[in-house]
Each structure stands twice: as structure tokens, then as C-alpha cells.
């Protein structure tokens, strides 16, 4: 190859990369704020909290029969209460709401047959775990499901304290596959944000 041809070829290749690197089809703007809110987590009935930095909430789902899942009109059986109590001390000044955001993909995942449900791990099949808010609405885990709870302000200046009660229910839900008995566990990371 002659030197001028190599220069032309190299210039063309560099020009292609420069053009594609500069093309933009859109923009994503991120907005947010870092707050001083820092809430301690404790559990109510039916749950237990362990861990010092990242809290682990243990929920006992119990033993549910295949017949109960099949014979239920909704495919939903019983449920375990999840009561999470937040004590924010005086760190939530100016805030009114705590939002719980779930991240199933960092946990056991989303059920492949019904993406509203948490995928179970273990030997059972045909069942997922549904999370319900205090109004008994199924939280859509695949759609960045979350729920809000008000921050409750108590006391008078300078001794104002903030708290919140997060009430959920978890149930086994038939996902449409053949239900096979076995262990049906799961884990679901969550993050608290404040508004």
C-alpha cells in the first residue's frame, strides 16, 4: 500500500469513529438530593431484624399445601405480616414521606411466569412470592415496585422526632405452572428514600 492511501484510509476510519462517538439520540437527566435522614429499622409482629449495617428482615412463610394454592380463587394463600418500624430521630426535618424501593434482580429475581412476583429459590415450582401494601394491592416487582408511607412527626421543638410504620404482607402465589412441593424461599433487597 502506498503511504498516501494509508493516510486516507486511516483518516476515514478516525472520521467514522469520531462521528459515531459524537452522535446523540437523547439525554438522561438525573436529579436527586442527599439528605441527613437516617432511620433505625426494627420489626413488628411476624418478623425479626438482624445485621448492624444492612438490616435483614426474616419473614416466616410457613407451610402451605398444594391444594390450598390450587383451590384458592385467587391462587393466593394466607400471608405473613411484615411490619417494619423506622425511628428517624430528629434527622428527617423537612421530609414527609419514606419510600421503599425493591430491587428483585439483586435478590432471587422476578418470577418468570408472573413478573409481579418474586421468584422463589429451592425445590418447589409453580409458586412465587407476592408482596402487598397496606391496602392489599400487589406491588409490581418487575415495574420498579415501591410503596410510600408517611413520616410521622412527634414532639415539639427542639425535641421533634420522626418515625414511620411500613406495613406489608407476603403470600405464596400460584404462578400458572404446575405446583410441585418443596422449599420456596426468596430474598428481596430494598432501599429507603425520603421526600
From TrEMBL:
Record's signal peptide: 1-23
Q: Which keywords does this Swiss-Prot/TrEMBL entry list?
A: Signal
**Which Pfam families does the UniProt record give?**
Fimbrial
What InterPro entries is this protein classified in? Adhesion_dom_fimbrial, Adhesion_dom_fimbrial_sf, Adhesion_dom_sf, Bact_Fimbrial_Adh_Pro
Question: Does the record's keyword annotation contain Signal?
Answer: yes
**Keyword Isomerase on this protein?**
no
Q: Where is the Fimbrial-type adhesion domain?
A: 28-194
PANTHER family per the UniProt record, alphabetical: FIMBRIAL SUBUNIT (PTHR33420:SF26), FIMBRIAL SUBUNIT ELFA-RELATED (PTHR33420)
Specify the protein name.
Type 1 fimbrial protein
Q: Which species is this UniProt entry from?
A: Pseudomonas paralactis
Amino acid at each position: 500500500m502506498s503511504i498516501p492511501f494509508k493516510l486516507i484510509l486511516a483518516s476515514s476510519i478516525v472520521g467514522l469513529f469520531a462521528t459515531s462517538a459524537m452522535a446523540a439520540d437523547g439525554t438522561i437527566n438525573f436529579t436527586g438530593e442527599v439528605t441527613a435522614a437516617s432511620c433505625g429499622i426494627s420489626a413488628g409482629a411476624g418478623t425479626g431484624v438482624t445485621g448492624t449495617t444492612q438490616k435483614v428482615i426474616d419473614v416466616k412463610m410457613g407451610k402451605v399445601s398444594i391444594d390450598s394454592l390450587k383451590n384458592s380463587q385467587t391462587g393466593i394463600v394466607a400471608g405473613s405480616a411484615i411490619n417494619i418500624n423506622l425511628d428517624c430521630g430528629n434527622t428527617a426535618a423537612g421530609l414527609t414521606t419514606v419510600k421503599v424501593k425493591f430491587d428483585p434482580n439483586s435478590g432471587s429475581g422476578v418470577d418468570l411466569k408472573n413478573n409481579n412476583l418474586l421468584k422463589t429459590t429451592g425445590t418447589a415450582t409453580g409458586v412465587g412470592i407476592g408482596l402487598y401494601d397496606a391496602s392489599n394491592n400487589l406491588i409490581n416487582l418487575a415495574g420498579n415496585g415501591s410503596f410510600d408511607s408517611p413520616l410521622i412527626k412527634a414532639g415539639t421543638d427542639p425535641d421533634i422526632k420522626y418515625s414511620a410504620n411500613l406495613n406489608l404482607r407476603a403470600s405464596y402465589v400460584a404462578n400458572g405452572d404446575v405446583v410441585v412441593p418443596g422449599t420456596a424461599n426468596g430474598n428481596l433487597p430494598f432501599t429507603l428514600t425520603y421526600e
